[in-house]
Target: Glucokinase
Amino acid sequence: MSIGKPGTILLADIGGTNARFALSESDQIGAIDYVKVADHLTVQEAIIDVLRRTAGEKPARAVLAVAGPVTNNRCVMTNSPWIIDGNELQPALGFDSVHVLNDFEVVAWSLPALQPSDLIPLGGQDGLPGEPLLVIGPGTGFGVSCLVERHGARLAVVTEAGHATLPAENEREERVIACLRRRQGHVSIERGALSGSGLQSLYEALAEVDGVQIPQRDAAGITKAALNSSCELSRATLSMFCAILGSVAGNLAVTFGARGGVYIGGGIAPRFPDFLAASAFRARFEAKGRFQDYLRNIPTLLITKPDASFVGLKMFADHNLG
Model:
């Protein structure tokens, strides 16, 4: 495979089920090509297939976002058989370089480039220029990354904050978490509340605390029943989800000093922006005692742009690949 133009870069967003690819050249990101992970034994096969369908010269470099932890430019995917190793892909595909990044690291890189039309404000003032930007996201898991800029250099801090212990802010939440602890042992932010499986855990624990019989529902079913008001417990579950999201977001904002802004990504919250805006999310975000004024000034924003990851991939490439 011949080396392409130095300015052409292969961008990819790779999940457990689907992978998306696009070519970037100058200021443009090309059409996104969707690939099912199950259709290819390896990521190398998938990339070769995508590039075979692409007209023009081949890219010289690649930046890949992956849904999993990255160590030494390598990720063993959790929910697929793919192993994504940039140091192996680079010579195998004839690229000059291959960078493998965590998916939330990539979303963090996108934050400075997002436009007002890509966001829904959820309270606060204008972010302070040059201060850290935090992104959190409940979805299949709970992702957290923070973009820090110092002296013109940018770094996206990747975390495993979703595995920190789930906090309680009131007696009812304490009872719910006590129920979860009996079921799960350690109750993490991710498994206890702020993910698809976490939402289901909240629903089941609330039913036990309230002593009510409920139909079995997954996260999508709980959300639907909450939004159409067909299930009081589902609505209470989604309300608690939003409140806990606010508390966790506030905790992380003071942890990182994220006075540039806190952004909500992931696959869950964008499904109910109005419900989230009307919930206790913002009040719980600011409820930090003596630091309430500090939190009151920090903007919280919901990311609605579906392809923010490609903006982040491009931003990383522009900043780090020249």
Observations:
- Residues 168 and 174 are 5 Å apart (CA to CA).
